[in-house]
Design a protein that fits this description.
Blueprint (H helix, E strand, L loop, with lengths): L12 H28 L4 H27 L7 H12 L6 H13 L18 H12 L16 H5 L1 H8 L1 H41 L19 H7 L5 H6 L15 H11 L11 H23 L16 H7 L12
Length: 343
């Protein structure tokens, strides 16, 4: 299949200026908008509704579309619905879908190790100052860095997908629609709250998964990385805060493993499946989840024993990564075996 035309992540001074405006603009607008709303004690019902509905929809566009559908291929939907979900995710303004997916797949393959684009731990030392620097890097400052030289290594099939490629190259139009629609519904306040501030809230909720959920929370699974389950972030992100669960079973469609682990996105997928719109949903059984937990415990124990004996052993030559990126994604558990195909 021929590769479709898509966007390519930008770099250089102009890119950093755009990212700075994108990052600081909403932050500067928010306190003034909040002050005005408190002072006047008036914020219209339409403004509230456009903000809340926009938050939920674009948030689901990221978690349901960008993350579980495009990145991990945890389920399938009809092409038209796929384009709509990814388009709504684009309106969150977190970048074109293929760039987002490439970064996130790297995060899983190199989780909290060199090569992870937004780890708060890799390349940072000990102590609270280094931890704070790592937190800021993982939350937002990693976005200012230039893209990797091998960008696109993990997104070949997505670039060949006509629907994904079209949404990717029309990214700016989706962002514009996400700002224009609340303005048409609720005027200038709708643009500010339902557009700019909604974008701010969705994005920093997503960013909190990268930062907070790799530093604060509980660990059900003994993964090699520092992923955590954080119920507060899960509530803000439709279930993405169940991050340790996700890192242990990256290709699973559902991140909440019990009723106590809130997972709105998982509920949406179940609903789509019930009406026949979601197929090939990857659902590990309780037995498979228990086996995965036992496997991770064994791996952790083995690595601990190796680490304790390291001073008595000669240095080992690092094993080269798989030459086929598709097989590399499967080996790392990022996508299901059935979703990947050899080049």
């Amino acid at each position: 299949m021929a590769e479709q035309k898509t966007t390519h992540p930008q770099s250089g001074k102009t890119h950093k200026i755009v990212i700075t405006i994108w990052a600081l603009g909403p932050l500067l607008v928010f306190p003034f908008a909040l002050y005005r709303a408190v002072k006047t004690r008036r914020i219209g019902r339409k403004v509230v509704l456009t903000t809340l509905i926009g938050y939920v929809l674009t948030g689901q566009g990221i978690t349901l579309g960008y993350h579980r559908l495009a990145t991990h291929e945890s389920f399938k939907v009809p092409r038209l619905l796929k384009g709509l979900i990814l388009g709504v995710g684009s309106a969150a303004a977190q970048g074109p879908v293929i760039t987002w997916v490439d970064n996130h797949r790297r995060h899983h393959i190199h989780a909290d190790q060199p090569g992870d684009p937004h780890s708060p731990h890799a390349d940072f030392g000990e102590g609270w100052k280094e931890s704070f620097k790592g937190f800021l890097h993982a939350h937002i400052f990693w976005l200012f860095e230039d893209p990797p030289k091998d960008f696109g290594r993990y997104t070949k099939r997505l670039r060949e997908d006509k629907v994904v490629a079209w949404v990717d190259r029309t990214f700016v139009w989706w962002v514009g629609a996400g700002l224009a629609l609340p303005a048409l519904i609720a005027g200038w306040p709708g643009f500010i709250w339902g557009g700019v501030i909604r974008m701010l809230l969705v994005n920093h909720s997503t960013f909190a998964v990268n930062s907070i959920c790799h530093m604060f929370g509980s660990r059900r699974f003994n993964t090699k990385d520092e992923s955590r389950n954080n119920i507060f972030i899960a509530m803000l992100t439709g279930g993405e805060g169940n991050h340790n669960n996700h890192h242990a079973n990256a290709k699973a469609a559902y991140h909440g493993l019990t009723w106590r682990e809130y997972d709105l996105t998982g509920y949406v997928i179940r609903g789509l499946k019930a009406v026949g719109l979601a197929t090939d949903v990857y659902e590990p059984t309780p037995e498979e989840i228990a086996a995965r937990q036992a496997q991770l415990d064994r791996q952790a124990a083995r690595e601990q024993a190796q680490a304790e004996a390291a001073t008595e052993l000669p240095s080992l030559t690092a094993v080269a990564p798989a030459t086929n990126p598709e097989r590399e994604l499967v080996a790392a558990g990022v996508v299901p075996e059935a979703m990947s195909a050899d080049d």
